[in-house]
Specification:
alpha/beta; globular; EC 3.5.1.81; six-stranded parallel beta sheet; Metal_Hydrolase; N-acyl-D-amino-acid deacylase activity; hydrolase activity, acting on carbon-nitrogen (but not peptide) bonds, in cyclic amides; TIM Barrel; nine-stranded mixed beta sheet; single chain; 32% helix
């Protein structure tokens, strides 16, 4: 569009820095907000959007999403934009395509991220470039520590040796220099579950030096076990001084608040995300198969679970232990609902619990779990209930915390997925602002946009101010609603019909325009135009990497990767 002028007429601007203002006209020039004028005083331009008195908010940032390979799909784009999301942060839970050729992520996380349609190597720089001008939304990335470990250590379950650790450090530093926002871990997944605290602490050294963020799916299953995971995060952060972000921090409100106070008291700079639902979602293999098995290549795992003796040992020796998996317990077959099954002959089981599907198949729950994994080559995900549901008041007590950041943990693969992928951000607004009034609109904008922009170094976004990148959302407060439910998880949100990314309309009247102004977001210095603290959240942000050329290391050779 060059320097084309566009006017958004008659809107109420609101962002995370303060209360909403009077009605105004917002003038865009090219990709940025040029100026803000009193309503009706701006001459017409060739392109005018009628705001009709709606709120104008900065584009929402989903700080934890699994759209890495799905952002190119029109249905996923529509699901996100209808919630107001203009930027997603991927590379979560320690597993994604880069660095490396993407093979490990496409295999192990097939039921979470899916394959990337174009990436086959080249590292973080190449993966970020794949998002430039190819989708209507922006995509940021974290360096995934599990993928790094797999590249260097292969399928080993041993602690990394000194040479291996140096190779991993080089990969992390290179990823940060190429634009990654930080480092992610998934310590209930493989191979992250085998990483020692000392290994993780060392890997955060280049993250701290670059001003990035350590983002952790912490060890131990959350809920009542959160203290153990937070203790490890505290040790890691105190070693390197790295800024921390706790992924999907779900537990009773008093546990969340207590553990955040613990981090603050120890001098750890920590934020967190939490989606506005109680149930979780993950790959079926994580809770129902042992990590020593799932770390192996898929063909080897399948050989074990289809071999009569291997299956017998799992049924007799392993399955009795999964009742101790945090949040599940003895009723685990009724707590896991099948969301995605990559075996067409088992499509009838979508939306059923493992127990109900097993009964229909005429077999036991454990046997059926192994059957569905074998038929799908492990590509199965499930919605996971918890023992103790939290009501709206409990969710609000977590989400209204001044260090909370919006994150859906959205998984866009499955015939019967978790509703969080299509409902989280609309539900934040409906629950916290419209229904309960726990937050005002400015505080809500901080939750869903401004804090994430500052925390992750996303550049001059997150504000409705002159000079800001025009990632903008027009929201009708009277119509904001999440429609996705556990029974109808594919329903789209309502109340946001017009969205712009970099000054270009990408959603008009609730429909995609076909424009693709999105880009891979590289880490930027702390927001240069609008750097500002808010409430008790305090300042935070990214930094700039200062490194030389990429470092080669002999342990990165393919024969060392266990492929």
């Amino acid at each position: 569009m060059g320097d084309a002028v566009r006017i958004i007429r008659d809107v109420v601007p609101v962002d995370g820095d303060g209360a909403e203002a009077a009605r105004v006209d917002v003038v865009l020039r090219g990709e940025r907000i040029d100026r803000i004028e009193p309503v009706g005083t701006t001459p017409d331009a060739a392109h005018v959007i009628d705001g009709g008195g709606r709120l104008l908010l900065p584009g929402f940032v989903d700080a934890h999403a699994h759209a890495d390979g799905r952002i190119f799909d029109a249905g996923v784009q529509l699901a996100l934009l209808r919630q107001g999301v203009t930027t997603v942060i991927g590379g979560q839970d320690g597993v994604s395509y880069a660095p490396g050729d993407g093979a490990y992520a496409s295999e192990y996380f097939a039921a979470i991220n899916g394959p990337h349609p174009g990436y086959d190597g080249g590292g973080i720089r190449s993966l970020l470039a794949s998002y430039d001008g190819t989708a209507p939304l922006n995509q940021g990335l974290l360096v995934p520590a599990g993928t790094v470990r797999d590249l260097v250590c292969g399928r080993s379950t041993d602690a990394a040796g000194p040479a291996e650790l140096e190779a991993m450090l080089a990969l992390v530093a290179d990823g940060l220099a190429e634009g990654a926002l930080g480092l992610s871990t998934g310590l209930d997944y493989v191979p992250g579950v085998f990483a020692t605290t000392e290994e993780l602490a060392r890997l955060t050294e280049p993250v701290a030096a670059a001003g990035g963020v350590y983002v952790s799916h912490m060890r131990g299953g959350y809920e009542a076990n959160s203290a153990a995971g937070i203790a490890e995060i505290e040790a890691i952060a105190r070693h390197s001084g790295v800024a921390v972000h706790v992924s999907h921090f779900h537990a009773e409100p008093h546990i969340v608040h207590e553990q955040l106070r613990r981090l603050e008291a120890s001098g750890v700079d920590a934020f967190f995300d939490a989606y506005p639902y109680t149930r979780g979602c993950s790959i079926l293999a994580m809770p129902v198969l042992p990590a020593w098995l799932t770390v192996r290549p898929t063909a080897e795992v399948l050989a074990v679970i289809t071999d009569p003796d291997g299956r017998r040992r799992l049924l007799e020796e392993w399955f009795p232990t999964i009742v101790d998996y945090p949040s599940l317990g003895p009723d685990w077959p009724e707590m896991l609902t099948l969301a995605h099954i990559a075996a067409p002959e088992l499509a009838w089981a979508h939306g059923l619990t493992i127990g109900a599907a097993a009964a229909r198949a005429g077999t036991g729950p454990a046997e059926f779990a192994l059957d569905v994994l074998a038929a799908s080559r492990l590509e199965v995900n499930v919605v996971m209930a918890v023992r103790y549901d939290r009501d709206d008041a409990d969710l609000a007590a977590i989400l209204a915390h001044p260090r909370a950041i919006g994150g859906s943990d959205g998984i866009f693969i499955g015939a019967h997925p978790h509703p969080r992928a299509r409902g989280s951000f609309a539900r934040y607004l409906r629950l916290l602002v419209v229904s309960r009034a726990d937050l005002g609109w400015a505080e809500a904008a901080a939750l869903v946009s401004t804090r994430a922009v500052d925390r992750f170094g996303l550049g001059d976004r997150g504000r409705v101010r002159a000079g800001a990148v025009a990632d903008l959302v027009l929201a009708d407060p009277a119509r904001i609603a999440d429609r996705a439910t556990y029974d109808d998880p594919l329903a789209l949100a309502e109340g946001i019909d017009d969205v712009l990314v970099a000054g270009t309309p990408v959603l008009e009247g609730g429909c995609l325009t076909g424009a693709t102004p999105g880009r891979g977001i590289r880490r930027s210095p702390s927001n240069s135009l609008f750097r500002k603290g808010y409430g008790n959240a305090g300042p935070s942000g990214g930094g700039t990497a200062s490194r030389g050329p990429a470092i080669a290391h002999p342990l990165l050779k393919s024969e060392m990767r266990g492929e």
